[in-house]
């Protein structure tokens, strides 16, 4: 049915490696997939809030928000 030699090779047991160290297998056209975030370390799934703030913007926002709530 499908034309030969035009489709990429499919790997039914492709490895996925997360930056947190978690690994799992999926079906993909890539044999090895490296990701930065997965369900084991994503704040939505873990319930833990992670804030990466290099310039103090989050703190300034929280201060402004607190001032508005006081008024």
What would you note in describing this structure?
This protein is of the alpha+beta class and 71 residues long. It has one domain (11-70): Rhinovirus 14, subunit 4, CATH 4.10.80. The protein is built from two helices and three strands, in the order βββαα. The protein has a three-stranded mixed β-sheet with strand order 2-1-3, with no helix packed on it. The longest helix has 14 residues, at 57-70. It starts with 10 loop residues before the first strand and ends with a helix. The mean pLDDT is 86.
Provide keyphrases for this structure:
71 residues; three-stranded mixed sheet; 2 helices; Rhinovirus 14, subunit 4; alpha+beta; elongated
Query: In what range is the share of β-strand residues?
Result: 25-35%
CATH topological fold name: Rhinovirus 14, subunit 4
- Output the CATH class name: Few Secondary Structures
Main β-sheet description: 3 strands, mixed
Mean pLDDT across all residues, rounded? 86
Distance between the termini: 69 Å
Question: What would the principal axes of the Cα set say about the shape?
Answer: elongated
Number of H/I helices: 2
Rg from alpha-carbon coordinates: 21 Å
What is the domain tally?
1
Q: Would you count the extended β strands for me? A: 3
Structural class call reads alpha+beta
Relative helix content: 25-40%
Q: Which spans of ≥5 residues are poorly predicted at pLDDT below 50?
A: none
H-E order: EEEHH
CATH architecture: Irregular
